[in-house]
């Protein structure tokens, strides 16, 4: 089932649509990944500098003997780590997604490498920040051992923020790739589940800052030179950093939830509006992906139901199908007053003898098309196609206020349309009227809706007489008398005739040409 492409196929306009070219996808992924890595590290570096200088001012890192660490080692490591993180992280991720960039169908190995890509990216950022934690803690601790807990806390906290942001951004950016893998049948992955995302956001946004505030209290108790103002400043700075990082991580976490939910919501709105040609792109490997798959499965079931309903209606008539779906169909029927119309082709044997079977069927289909259009225009039911003959019913199963008038008007419309639309065919048309039994006939395993009674036989016999002059449909006088005066005015009474199989004469009426 093709998916209708939109600008939010993957939950955000930043990720484009599912029908973008592979070149555009590659440029977008590389650009977003590089931006994400740089942004996460800049936030982490800013948090580290702010915490080390203002958030936890005591003991101070601005000691004379630490100038070479502050202004040589730290900047050099930051530049080196940022360069390695951006270049190696972007290139390794794009290399793992080479199949997607080329537009190839992924193999099992491709799926493994692609799903490991965001974790490798996060592992690289974690490794670089772990290296910074060890290096800076040792360098600052050699000069002043009292700086060890402070540097350890500051760098570890900042690194944790970077890793959390990078992991959420990587999963967001690689949604198109995950969608391709899920579409290819690779259902399992190492993506974070909803609970994991929530715990990660809480840990960095609340857990780590709370630990920092507790350590500030410990520092205030240990170091006599830490003033009250320093404690207040530390708590304010850590709280401010926590507010910012917590809000950012919460937004990233909720974005991963809102996108799939919004896609399903929009799809449901279209389904409620009557559309069933709706599918959403499945791009999330968590429980939300299961929700997207469930929605697509539900809509596929609706499409199949509509297809079956359409086929059912084409076979038995839309009114019969609707009645069967409203109530459990049962064998048997009820007596109703109906009008019946029988149309029989004139010279069908000659037609089959002079044309190929394919041409014969095509001609008959055009003939039946005229009949179906006219019958449905007057709210009747085409009940049977019997070879080259048709039985139509008016007044059952759909009640009509004037079934006789509807049948007579339909007969005249067909007689006028056939010479124009299907000039190679002519037909005798007969209309009967009276009480008949309408209902389901057959066995419980296989039955059909039909009408049984004298009006059916009467219309069939009248159609035989009407073959004398196909321009003039015939009807019983009872049918004309039951019709509305406007329609009855179009019919002329002829002689009474004993129809085949009957003993009582029937007064016959013909349409006025």
Automatic annotation (TrEMBL):
<protein>
    <submittedName>
        <fullName>Adenylate/guanylate cyclase domain-containing protein</fullName>
    </submittedName>
</protein>
<dbReference type="InterPro" id="IPR050697">
    <property type="entry name" value="Adenylyl/Guanylyl_Cyclase_3/4"/>
</dbReference>
<dbReference type="InterPro" id="IPR001054">
    <property type="entry name" value="A/G_cyclase"/>
</dbReference>
<dbReference type="InterPro" id="IPR029787">
    <property type="entry name" value="Nucleotide_cyclase"/>
</dbReference>
<feature type="transmembrane region" description="Helical">
    <location>
        <begin position="32"/>
        <end position="56"/>
    </location>
</feature>
<dbReference type="InterPro" id="IPR003660">
    <property type="entry name" value="HAMP_dom"/>
</dbReference>
<comment type="similarity">
    <text>Belongs to the adenylyl cyclase class-3 family.</text>
</comment>
<feature type="domain" description="Guanylate cyclase">
    <location>
        <begin position="339"/>
        <end position="463"/>
    </location>
</feature>
<keyword id="KW-0812">Transmembrane</keyword>
<dbReference type="Pfam" id="PF00672">
    <property type="entry name" value="HAMP"/>
</dbReference>
<keyword id="KW-1003">Cell membrane</keyword>
<dbReference type="Pfam" id="PF00211">
    <property type="entry name" value="Guanylate_cyc"/>
</dbReference>
<feature type="transmembrane region" description="Helical">
    <location>
        <begin position="199"/>
        <end position="223"/>
    </location>
</feature>
<keyword id="KW-0472">Membrane</keyword>
<feature type="domain" description="HAMP">
    <location>
        <begin position="255"/>
        <end position="307"/>
    </location>
</feature>
<keyword id="KW-1133">Transmembrane helix</keyword>
<feature type="transmembrane region" description="Helical">
    <location>
        <begin position="121"/>
        <end position="142"/>
    </location>
</feature>
<feature type="transmembrane region" description="Helical">
    <location>
        <begin position="235"/>
        <end position="261"/>
    </location>
</feature>
<feature type="transmembrane region" description="Helical">
    <location>
        <begin position="148"/>
        <end position="170"/>
    </location>
</feature>
<feature type="transmembrane region" description="Helical">
    <location>
        <begin position="68"/>
        <end position="91"/>
    </location>
</feature>
């Amino acid at each position: 089932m093709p998916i209708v492409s939109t600008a939010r196929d993957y939950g955000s306009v930043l990720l484009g649509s599912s029908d973008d070219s592979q070149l555009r996808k590659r440029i977008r992924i590389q650009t977003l990944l590089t931006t994400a890595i740089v942004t996460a590290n800049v936030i982490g570096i800013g948090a580290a500098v702010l915490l080390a200088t203002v958030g936890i001012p005591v003991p101070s890192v601005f000691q004379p003997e630490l100038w070479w660490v502050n202004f040589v080692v730290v900047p050099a490591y930051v530049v080196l780590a940022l360069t390695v993180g951006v270049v190696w992280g972007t290139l390794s991720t794009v290399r793992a997604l080479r199949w997607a960039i080329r537009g190839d169908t992924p193999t099992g190995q491709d799926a493994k490498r692609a799903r490991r890509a965001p974790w490798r990216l996060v592992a690289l950022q974690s490794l670089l920040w772990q290296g910074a934690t060890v290096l800076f803690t040792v360098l600052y601790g050699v000069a002043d051992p009292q700086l060890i807990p402070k540097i350890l806390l500051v760098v570890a906290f900042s690194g944790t923020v970077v890793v959390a942001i990078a992991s959420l951004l990587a999963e967001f950016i690689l949604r198109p790739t995950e969608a391709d893998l899920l579409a290819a049948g690779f259902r399992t992955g190492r993506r974070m589940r909803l609970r994991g995302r929530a715990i990660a956001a809480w840990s960095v946004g609340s857990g780590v800052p709370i630990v920092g505030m507790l350590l500030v209290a410990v520092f205030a108790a240990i170091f006599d030179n830490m003033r009250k103002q320093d404690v207040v400043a530390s708590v304010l700075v850590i709280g401010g950093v926590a507010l910012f990082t917590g809000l950012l991580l919460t937004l990233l976490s909720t974005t991963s939830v809102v996108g799939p939910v919004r896609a399903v919501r929009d799809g449901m709105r279209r389904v409620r509006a009557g559309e069933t040609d709706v599918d959403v792109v499945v791009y999330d490997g968590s429980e939300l992906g299961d929700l997207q798959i469930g929605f697509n499965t539900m809509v596929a079931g609706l499409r199949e139901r509509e297809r079956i309903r359409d086929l059912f209606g084409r076979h038995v008539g839309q009114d019969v199908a609707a009645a069967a779906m409203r109530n459990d169909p049962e064998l048997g029927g009820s007596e109703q007053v109906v009008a019946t119309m029988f149309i029989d082709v004139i010279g069908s044997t000659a037609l089959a003898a002079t044309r190929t079977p394919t041409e014969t069927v095509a001609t008959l289909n055009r003939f039946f098309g005229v009949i179906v259009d006219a019958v449905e225009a007057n709210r009747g039911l085409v009940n049977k196609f019997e070879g080259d003959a048709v039985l139509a019913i008016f007044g059952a199963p759909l009640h009509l206020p004037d079934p006789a008038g509807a049948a007579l008007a339909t007969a005249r419309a067909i007689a006028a349309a056939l010479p124009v639309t299907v000039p190679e065919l002519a037909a005798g048309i007969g209309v009967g009227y009276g009480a008949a039994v309408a209902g389901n006939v057959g066995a419980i395993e296989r039955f059909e809706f039909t009408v049984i009674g004298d009006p059916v036989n009467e219309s069939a016999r009248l159609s035989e007489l009407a073959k004398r002059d196909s321009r003039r449909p015939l009807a019983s006088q009872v049918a004309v008398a039951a019709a509305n005066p406007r329609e009855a005015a179009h019919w002329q009474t002829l002689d009474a005739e004993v129809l085949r199989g009957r003993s009582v004469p029937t007064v016959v009426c013909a349409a006025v040409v």
